[in-house]
Amino acid sequence: MPAFRQVGEKQLPNPVLYMAWSPKRDLIALVNTAGELLLHRLANFQRVWNLPPSENTGKEITSLAWRPDGKILAFSLGDTKQVVLCDAEKAEILHLFTVDYPVSCMHWMEVQSDSSVSSSFTDSEDESNRFLPKLPILPKSYSSTSKIFSEEKSDEVPNLLGDVRLNILVVGGQSGFVELYAYGLYKIATLNTITGVCRSLCLSGDLKSLSIITEVRSPEDNAEIHYVQLDTGLLSSCLPELTRMARKFTHISTLIQYLRLSLTCMCEAWEDILMQMDLRLTKFVQEKNTNTQVQDEFLELLLWGHASPELQALLMNQLTVKGLKMLGQSIESSYSSIQKLVISHLQSGSEALLYYLSEVKGMALWKQKFQPLGLDPSAIEDAITAVGSFTLKASELLQVIDKSMKNFKAFFRWLYVAMLRMSEDHVPPELNKMTQRDLAFVADFLSEHFSNEELFDRKGKYFNVERVGQYLKDEDENLVSPPNMDGNHWVTFVQQSTHLKESPLLFPTYPQKSLHFVKRMMESTIDICLQKPAGVIGGSVKQAVRLPLYSVSKSEYNTALSLRAKCIFFSCRWNDKNAAMHYIVFCMQEISPSKIYILRRATDPNRSVPNGLVAIDLNTPLNTTIDDEADRSYSCLDARLYDDETLTVVLQGQDSDDNRLRLLAQLPLGSPFCMLVFWVRLDQQSEGIPAQGLTWGNQSRDLENMKAQFVAVNGIRKVACVVRAVFFMPALDTLQLSPVIIDLPQSLSKSRKSRSTIYKKTMTTVKLG
């Protein structure tokens, strides 16, 4: 009976580049050359959903990473330099952020459990839920942008944060680019100490070190592979404070996004039809032949009921009775929608933002705890002031909307009756009544909106009767018609008071600026507040060790790229949390193609544990019961950790007759490590590395007629997915790949109770081509 059982095979239309099993569920994510992200279920390899490439996000997916709870999948895009967080249930994009360089690798880890830390943060989250009401849901019908981010509302933030325990998404790319994101949302560190391209990285579970595999170009243009360990002791020593700060700042980041989308909905609620009155009055001024002012024309119509031929033509031929009625309805509907969004969304979001910033300010004042993380009380105070100014500007917009609705209602009612009389139509009795107070109100409206001061603004417009739209324009220029503060008793009182005029207790107002301008000013101020901890924490990270592993010649490098083979870079890395050790599996194809090397390094850089290294020789019988296997030689194409003590590998026969042979095997990882001093590059002292032979009986399977390339394993489900090449056309450089599901046996470690070394599982992705 064979040890491995094939349970499924699926032919896919496009080659597969990456794949990653969910750490908690029977789901596997696939990325193909068409830029599609596919999610399949283990049962019959059923497709759950398909996320096609998009112009908004990108088309070139470069890496995958699952959140440790398996609820969110992160993928990076090289063409747009973005990282996207996707809901595993609905294929909805929950969040995305832009980075400076294309991402080549990602790792999403969860901090080791700490019950004391978890209980303290549960209490703090409950307090915020008691004080802050849930924010209203963003209207989904306004735009595609609000649909994409419809989940980014206050009641969904806990789902984005996941468990109370801190989890960190680490991204790396070209030019030594490495960034750390708490909960995949808030950037807590930017590292600038790495040289070369990041090929693989892993943050230890105790947060004491970050291990990175880098590719550095030599003067001869060869690719030199290095192992770099960075000391991240500040993250470990300040874990409770870091978790609290990260959760608060994550709420702040999502609230800023909520306000931004609310303002977008307000802009879309404002319609261009509201500008028709301004444009037609402007055209009327340009075309009329008299020197009479427009204000006088309308006042004559108001007082005497007579209109000049030019004004009558404007009202009856261009504006029309039906058009005036439609315009009035549009203004009332649009203004009401904007008013509701300001009250329910902008003001509620601003209040929540002030709450969280005030909490962060209190944390920053506890300098003993939070100053090492870069919290600056003065920067947070500036952010609070900016949010206060934004709140005042939103209140100012409410006043303008309320006044404009009253003005337009009275003005349109009078103008509607006047136009009905011009056309000799019947005037309803309820509209035919106009008191002296109504006349005075309309006269004041005409005097305010049709005066000489309103004529010919900077854009060539003669009128600005519509006052709300200027607040929603994303421009740096001043408002065309700012609010008139003359006669405002509070403004006069503050200006005349020497103590209140410069008081820090009062939020500054910007009466000449639009709501969009104040919003951008608030975002930039808060962004400075959010980015400062990332710079301080990133500056505290120092390089603990750099170990040169091996070099890949330019010819071998180019050959591997043309064959879409990344075996020269593959590195399987994982943490042994019990022993606080970090392990890396790699191959040196040019020096020792038939050996797999395992490097061991303590996660604590200050711990005096020598570097450990062991080589596993693949030139041993795969099955001791078959004699003709003894002379075969194999090289490793890919390796993934199956469980604590087992490594799953894809092997290729090296002989000319066996180069098409592929084997899937389970390797026991119980070999003793030797202590090694890296005085030169590892490939230059490979002869001194002891090699361990292996015999694993029936723990292998011949992948017949299957040109396997790489594998993804799920030790919890005891299953592996092998991607094979169906055909290869060197002239076109085309490689067709399809996955094969293989049921693996029980872990080899079940029969080996005593092992000196425990290996911990880490899900990774390997790039092909």
UniProtKB/TrEMBL annotation:
<dbReference type="InterPro" id="IPR015943">
    <property type="entry name" value="WD40/YVTN_repeat-like_dom_sf"/>
</dbReference>
<dbReference type="Pfam" id="PF23405">
    <property type="entry name" value="WD40_APC4_C-half"/>
</dbReference>
<dbReference type="GO" id="GO:0051301">
    <property type="term" value="P:cell division"/>
</dbReference>
<protein>
    <recommendedName>
        <fullName>Anaphase-promoting complex subunit 4</fullName>
    </recommendedName>
</protein>
<keyword id="KW-0832">Ubl conjugation</keyword>
<dbReference type="GO" id="GO:0034399">
    <property type="term" value="C:nuclear periphery"/>
</dbReference>
<keyword id="KW-0132">Cell division</keyword>
<keyword id="KW-0833">Ubl conjugation pathway</keyword>
<keyword id="KW-0597">Phosphoprotein</keyword>
<dbReference type="GO" id="GO:0031145">
    <property type="term" value="P:anaphase-promoting complex-dependent catabolic process"/>
</dbReference>
<dbReference type="InterPro" id="IPR024790">
    <property type="entry name" value="APC4_long_dom"/>
</dbReference>
<dbReference type="InterPro" id="IPR024789">
    <property type="entry name" value="APC4"/>
</dbReference>
<dbReference type="InterPro" id="IPR017169">
    <property type="entry name" value="APC4_metazoa"/>
</dbReference>
<comment type="similarity">
    <text>Belongs to the APC4 family.</text>
</comment>
<keyword id="KW-0131">Cell cycle</keyword>
<keyword id="KW-0539">Nucleus</keyword>
<keyword id="KW-0498">Mitosis</keyword>
<dbReference type="Pfam" id="PF12896">
    <property type="entry name" value="ANAPC4"/>
</dbReference>
<comment type="function">
    <text>Component of the anaphase promoting complex/cyclosome (APC/C), a cell cycle-regulated E3 ubiquitin ligase that controls progression through mitosis and the G1 phase of the cell cycle. The APC/C complex acts by mediating ubiquitination and subsequent degradation of target proteins: it mainly mediates the formation of 'Lys-11'-linked polyubiquitin chains and, to a lower extent, the formation of 'Lys-48'- and 'Lys-63'-linked polyubiquitin chains. The APC/C complex catalyzes assembly of branched 'Lys-11'-/'Lys-48'-linked branched ubiquitin chains on target proteins.</text>
</comment>
<feature type="domain" description="Anaphase-promoting complex subunit 4 long">
    <location>
        <begin position="226"/>
        <end position="425"/>
    </location>
</feature>
<feature type="domain" description="Anaphase-promoting complex subunit 4 C-terminal half WD40">
    <location>
        <begin position="573"/>
        <end position="725"/>
    </location>
</feature>
<dbReference type="GO" id="GO:0005680">
    <property type="term" value="C:anaphase-promoting complex"/>
</dbReference>
<feature type="domain" description="Anaphase-promoting complex subunit 4-like WD40">
    <location>
        <begin position="19"/>
        <end position="110"/>
    </location>
</feature>
<dbReference type="GO" id="GO:0070979">
    <property type="term" value="P:protein K11-linked ubiquitination"/>
</dbReference>
<keyword id="KW-1017">Isopeptide bond</keyword>
<comment type="pathway">
    <text>Protein modification; protein ubiquitination.</text>
</comment>
<dbReference type="Pfam" id="PF12894">
    <property type="entry name" value="ANAPC4_WD40"/>
</dbReference>
<dbReference type="InterPro" id="IPR056358">
    <property type="entry name" value="APC4_C"/>
</dbReference>
<dbReference type="InterPro" id="IPR024977">
    <property type="entry name" value="Apc4-like_WD40_dom"/>
</dbReference>
<dbReference type="GO" id="GO:0030071">
    <property type="term" value="P:regulation of mitotic metaphase/anaphase transition"/>
</dbReference>
